[in-house]
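Anyone up for a design puzzle?
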């Protein structure tokens, strides 16, 4: 067995007064990880699932309230059919395998995206895993599958329009809170930190509304290589940032 990863030195540096309420991760780089090893892309996705397991463990250990991970975008349907099928099977397998661990660790499973667009077996596995973990309350793990920030906004606009159609709402009642309440993240804090591995510096349609004031952290590490140390390194970087939310530094100092 590989030697357990050491990360106590990084844990000791964390400032518990500056903990994010929500970390979101764009799990990217599986294909490149596999290509570099002359393996099929599917091997990269499997290794990516292991990286997710490690990341969930460390986030639970630091008592993070909400972790959201981007697993499959609305654009990822454009990939070769075989890869899409593999990813859907992997998602079902991950849910089946992780429920026991999630229950031991008191983690509730949440979902971001349009589930009506998912194949039936995926919807079933998701519903079962959500029901099995519904009473857990130490951490929320949101998995984004068939998720697109634009699609989420379109769905929110449809919900609002239908309330207006039914005379339950007037257009002047629409405010930021109502829009936020109609998103998949309704009732949850916005992400404070968004991590993207793999060397790409873009958002790729993830949490467009919610990321308004998120701190972005990009690393060249490919997702399957992402370790607990990498998560803690990103967190420490975040804790060193100055967040102003539009105010001046002087105002922030006085708050
Ligand atoms: C992320 O890894 C997984 C998904 C988007 C489903 P990729 O499969 O995008 O890996 P790269 O970007 O090709 O290396
Ligand atoms: C973003 O990765 C989506 C997920 C990680 C699920 P992509 O690999 O699809 O993003 P692009 O195409 O490089 O922007
Ligand atoms: Mg990619």
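Challenge accepted. My sequence:
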């Amino acid at each position: 067995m590989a030697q357990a990863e050491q990360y106590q030195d990084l844990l000791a540096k964390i400032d518990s007064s500056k903990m994010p309420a929500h970390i979101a991760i764009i799990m990217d780089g599986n294909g490149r990880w596999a290509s570099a090893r002359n393996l099929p892309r599917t091997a990269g996705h499997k290794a990516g699932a292991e990286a997710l397991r490690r990341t969930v463990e460390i986030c639970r250990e630091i008592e993070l309230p909400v972790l959201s991970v981007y697993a499959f975008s609305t654009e990822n349907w454009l990939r070769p059919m075989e890869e899409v099928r593999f990813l859907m099977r992997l998602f079902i397998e991950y849910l089946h395998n992780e429920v026991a661990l999630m229950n031991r660790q008191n983690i509730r499973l949440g979902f971001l995206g349009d589930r009506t667009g998912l194949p039936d077996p995926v919807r079933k596995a998701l519903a079962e895993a959500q029901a099995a973990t519904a009473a857990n309350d130490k951490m929320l793990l949101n998995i984004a599958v068939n998720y697109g920030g634009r699609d989420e906004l379109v769905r929110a606009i449809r919900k609002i329009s239908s309330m207006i159609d039914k005379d339950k709402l007037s257009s002047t009642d629409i405010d930021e809170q109502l829009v936020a309440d109609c998103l998949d993240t309704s009732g949850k804090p916005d992400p404070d930190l968004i991590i993207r591995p793999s060397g790409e510096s873009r958002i790729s349609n993830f949490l467009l509304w919610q990321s308004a004031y998120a701190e972005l952290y990009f690393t060249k590490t490919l997702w399957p290589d992402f370790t607990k140390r990498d998560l803690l390194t990103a967190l420490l970087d975040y804790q060193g940032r100055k967040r102003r939310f539009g105010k001046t530094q002087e105002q922030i100092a006085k708050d």
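A detail worth pointing out: The CA atoms of residues 61 and 235 lie 13 Å apart.
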